[in-house]
Amino acid sequence: MDSREFRNAMGRFATGVTVITSSDGTENYGMTANAFMSVSLEPKLITISVDNKANILNKIKTSGQFAVSFLSDEQQDISMHFAGQKKKDDPIEFDEIEGVPTIRGSLASVVCDVDQSIVVGDHTIFIGKVLDLKLSEGQPLTFFCGRYGKYQENIHV
Description:
This protein has one domain: Electron Transport, Fmn-binding Protein, Chain A (Pnp Oxidase, Chain A, Roll). It is 15% helix and 47% strand. The protein is built from three helices and twelve strands; from the N terminus they run H-E-E-E-E-E-H-E-H-E-E-E-E-E-E. The strands form three sheets. It has a seven-stranded antiparallel sheet with strand order 3-2-6-9-10-5-4. It has a three-stranded antiparallel sheet with strand order 1-11-12, with no helix packed on it. The chain starts with a helix and ends in a 7-residue tail after the last strand. The mean pLDDT is 92. It is an enzyme of class 1 (oxidoreductase).
C-alpha cells in the first residue's frame, strides 16, 4: 500500500476536530488536529500526536505545556485557519487557563503539562498531565473522509 491509500483509510475514522495550542511567552501558536485521545482517569492523562515538521512542536517542547480545545460546529473557520487551509478574517480569540492559550468558545479546553514525549516515526507523541479544563455547551465539529460535518442525532419515533 502507498501513503495515500493509508491516509485515505485513516480518514474513514470519523473524529471530532481539535486545535492544539501552546505559547512561547510572547505569541500563541495553534495547530488543527484529530490525533487526540484520553489515556487515564487516575492520574488524568491525555495524548496528542504532532508531526515532527509542525511549527508548534518546539513551542510545546520549550514551554512544557499545551492545551487541546474541542471545536464546536460553529468553529470550522478556526479549524481551517490552524490547518493552513484558509486564513481567518477576524483575529483568533484566545482564553487562558493556567497561563496556556485555549480557543474561546470551544466545547471543552483541556490544559496539560507535558508528562512524556515519544518520537515515533514522523510524529512526536505527547502525554499530557491534565492541570485544568473548561466546558461549554454546543454541538461538535466533525471530520470524515477529508470533509467537515456536523453531529446529527438519530431520533427514533
